[in-house]
Amino acid sequence: MPDPAFVDRLNQQIGYEFGASQQYVAAAVYYDNETLPRLAAFFYAQALEERNHAMMMVQYLMDADAEVVIPGIAAPQGSFGDIVEPVRVALEQEKRVTGQINELAALAREAGDYSSEQFMQWFIKEQIEEVASMSDLLRVVERSRENAMFAEDFLAREHPESEAEDASAPAAAGGAL
Questions:
Q1: Tell me, what's the pLDDT at 128?
Q2: Distance CA 80, CA 59 (A)
Q3: Coil vs helix vs strand at 134
Q4: Domain boundaries, the chain
Q5: How far is Cα of residue 177 from the mean position of the Cα atoms in its chain?
Q6: Which of 63, 70, 60 has its CA nearest to residue 104?
Q7: Mean pLDDT of 129-153
């Protein structure tokens, strides 16, 4: 059984992951309304990914015979001043989540909960990729502020819609829906 303090924090993190998913939906809807389909698709995909991260955490807790608590979440930011703001919000969110994930891994290590620490390693790797990807996209949309089609072209070239699944990813409760 995982350390009780880790279980409490992981249950909190489940809420943060669902919150991140909702924030990405809000960004996707903004881009959809701006008729920017590539940016919208990118953020809809990010929303699903964050939801699956929450479900991976749920599955881990169930597998470890620990209590699962699905916390409520605050409403996401839904209005944005320009095409840059949703990406800036997303990057800030990814940096915040990176800190949370690192704190979870440290909590598990300090408690001698090596199974939970090992579980968090995939998320640490994932957060490095997420921050790098969102940082790149922020630079692109900042340069594309006056012509959003440049950002759309970037996503068409650099983020193909069908990326391979990560075979090392933890299982998600309910399967990867």
A1: 97
A2: 34
A3: helix
A4: 4-158
A5: 15
A6: 60
A7: 95
The average pLDDT across 133-140 equals 97
Consecutive H or E run containing 138: helix 114-143
- What are the tokens at 130? 């997420």
What are the tens digits of pLDDT across the range 61-113? 999 999 999 999 999 999 999 999 999 999 999 999 999 999 999 999 999 99
Q: How many other C-beta atoms are found inside a 10 Å radius of the C-beta of residue 124?
A: 13
- In the chain, the amino acid numbered 116 is S
> Is this prediction's pTM over 0.85?
yes
Is 3.30.160.20 the CATH classification of the domain at 4-158?
no
Supply the pLDDT for residue 177: 54
**Cα separation, 53 vs 22, whole angstroms:** 13
Provide long-range contacts, Cβ within 8 A and 24+ apart, for 68-76: 68/11, 68/14, 69/11, 69/14, 70/14, 70/15, 70/18, 71/11, 71/12, 71/14, 71/15, 71/18, 72/15, 73/15, 73/18, 73/19, 73/22, 74/19, 75/22, 76/19, 76/22, 76/23, 76/25, 76/26
Whether residue 123 contacts residue 17, with contact meaning beta carbons closer than 8 Å, is answered with no
Given a contact cutoff of 8 angstroms between Cβ atoms, the answer to whether 1 and 66 are in contact is yes
